[in-house]
Structure formats: structure tokens, C-alpha cells
Write a structure and sequence with these properties.
310 residues, 2-enoyl-CoA Hydratase, Chain A, domain 1, two-stranded antiparallel sheet, 12 helices
């Protein structure tokens, strides 16, 4: 009996037992509902191959897809008071920060990196939506200032990629102060004559969209990205009207002049490289040699002498 229980039965159970499949091998597209193999999805930069829906992508993966050979250097951002107001709602703000830091292995919601894109030195500041919905607090504001000053120091274009729910309300008025701070930082880049390019991703809302996100020399957006200040339901309740179809989507903003171009993620890198080459030429201007004879000299040579003789 023990032989049957210990040897035969386990063998039979192994034959009929269903093989467990890891949950993360397939991912369902939230737009068309198709199941996509995870390797195929990652190879396509998390863009659905069936309907073209752009799923959210990790901030480090985004950096790799933009820089030459996926190589870049990160800038250490200035430290700020992690909990200036000692805020607490259902849990302490400091506890929320520690949880987000442990989950993402990042200090806050902004990453600043520099490297080459198409051979041109470039500074990129990208938001990490996985860190408290990419909300903008004092650390993010300080990071944007550091990115702007790095761009000025390197005489390089600045690309900002927001993905944020807006200001971080756990920091109260200090989070709202980051809006003018970020605008001043962007002004430093523009005053230096350097290109400032914004790539609007899903979502770009709240105080982020009301400040630096809408000040780009060129504004790009990923297809289907939600871009706006207040939510659509809040707006409908305020104006008491039905909003048009596609309201606050990237394509709607492009058609109404708020976005310059909507570009798919696989084409984003090459599009940015072309824009940088058009807007920024670090080479000195060509020297124009003066003509051998100036116009004044030619005129004087043809003029009659003052005594009237030929």
C-alpha cells in the first residue's frame, strides 16, 4: 500500500496535473482586449501590435530607447526635506514615500539623465508614474532646476517627458510653488538659446500641465495620451455640457493647436533626433568673407573728380 501511495500515485498525479503558467507571460491590451505575449510586447516598446494602443512604459526603459546604444549617465538630484509639513491622512506621508521608494527603487518621481541622441549631447528629465503617480513635489521641482542648469552648462537641448497626476498635495503650498520654479528653470534654458522639447505622455494633468509641460518650443505627444488640467467629469459637471469625443486626448489637442505632432513610440527617438538637428547646431557659424571691393568703393571709383576734369 505504501508503494502505491508513495510511488504510483504521485506519478499518476504528475501526468494529469495542469502545468502552472506564470501570470506575467501574457498581458491583455486594455483597448482591444487581445492577449499579447510579454516578449512581443516589450520588443514593440509596450505598444499593442493589434490596435496600436500605447501602454505605460517604465521610466528606465524609456531612457534606454532614447539615448544612443541605450547608454546614459544619471544626475544625482539635490536632497530636499522628505516631509516638510509632517502631513498625515490615512497614513503618514513619510510612510508613503518609503513605500514608493522601496517599490520603485528610486528616491522620487523624476529621473534626470544626459548622454547623446544621434550624436548630439542631450539632457532628458523623465517622470516615473509608478512613484506616487508621478506627482510633483519639492524634489521634482529641484530636479527640473538641476536638469535645466545641466543643459545650460553643457549647451545641450533639454527634453522633458511628463507622466503625472499633478502637484503632490501632501506637500501643500510647497508643491504648488514648484509650478513657478519649473517655469523659471525653463526660462533659463530658453534665454541660453537652447531647444526645450516636451514629450507629453499618458497622463499629463494638473499642475504639471499648467506649468512647464505646455511651454515647449516643440510639443510632441504619444497617441491617445490624456492631456489636460482637470478631469473630464469635473469639467462636464462645471460647464454642464457634454464634452466632444476624444476630448483631452493627444489627437484632439493636436487638431486644436495645443500639440505640434503626435508620434508613435517606435518613431519617437528618430523624430527627436531630427528636431534637435533642426533646432540646435553647436557648430560655429560659417565665416563670410567680405567682397574685394565694397559698394562704397565702387561708387567712389565711378564718381567724377571735384574739379570737374575727366
Amino acid at each position: 500500500m505504501s508503494w502505491l501511495n508513495n510511488f504510483v500515485r504521485p506519478k499518476l498525479q504528475a501526468l494529469v496535473r495542469k502545468t502552472e503558467v506564470p501570470d506575467n507571460l501574457w498581458e491583455k491590451c486594455p483597448s482591444c482586449g487581445q492577449m499579447i505575449f510579454h516578449r512581443e510586447l516589450e520588443a514593440n516598446l509596450r505598444v499593442c501590435p493589434h490596435c496600436g494602443h500605447h501602454m505605460r512604459i517604465g521610466v528606465l526603459r524609456r531612457m534606454e530607447m532614447l539615448f544612443d546604444d541605450g547608454r546614459y549617465q544619471r544626475l544625482e538630484l539635490p536632497r530636499t526635506d522628505p516631509d516638510p509639513l509632517k502631513f498625515r491622512d490615512q497614513k503618514r506621508y513619510s510612510d508613503r514615500l518609503r513605500e514608493a521608494q522601496g517599490r520603485t527603487n528610486e528616491q522620487d518621481a523624476l529621473i534626470v539623465a544626459h548622454g547623446t541622441m544621434g550624436g548630439a549631447q542631450t539632457v532628458v528629465a523623465a517622470f516615473n508614474f509608478a512613484f506616487m503617480a508621478g506627482s510633483m513635489g519639492s524634489a521634482v521641482g529641484g530636479g527640473l532646476i538641476a536638469a535645466a542648469r545641466l543643459a545650460v552648462a553643457q549647451q545641450a537641448p533639454l527634453i522633458v517627458i511628463p507622466a503625472s497626476g499633478g502637484a503632490r498635495m501632501q506637500e501643500g503650498i510647497l508643491s504648488l510653488m514648484q509650478m513657478p520654479r519649473s517655469i523659471i528653470a525653463i526660462d533659463e534654458v530658453k534665454e541660453a538659446g537652447l531647444p526645450y522639447i516636451v514629450v507629453l505622455t499618458d497622463p499629463t494633468t494638473g499642475g504639471v500641465s499648467a506649468s512647464f509641460a505646455m511651454l515647449g518650443d516643440i510639443a510632441l505627444a504619444e497617441p491617445g495620451a490624456v492631456i489636460g488640467f482637470a478631469g473630464a467629469r469635473v469639467i462636464e459637471g462645471t460647464v454642464r455640457e457634454k464634452l466632444p469625443e476624444g476630448f483631452q486626448r493627444a489627437e484632439y489637442l493636436r487638431d486644436h493647436g495645443m500639440v505640434d505632432i503626435v508620434v508613435s513610440r517606435p518613431e519617437l527617438r528618430q523624430t527627436l533626433i531630427r528636431i534637435i538637428r533642426l533646432l540646435h547646431n553647436p557648430q560655429p557659424p560659417a565665416v563670410v568673407e567680405p567682397p574685394a571691393t565694397t559698394a562704397a568703393e565702387a561708387f567712389n571709383g565711378r564718381s567724377r573728380p571735384s574739379n570737374g576734369s575727366e
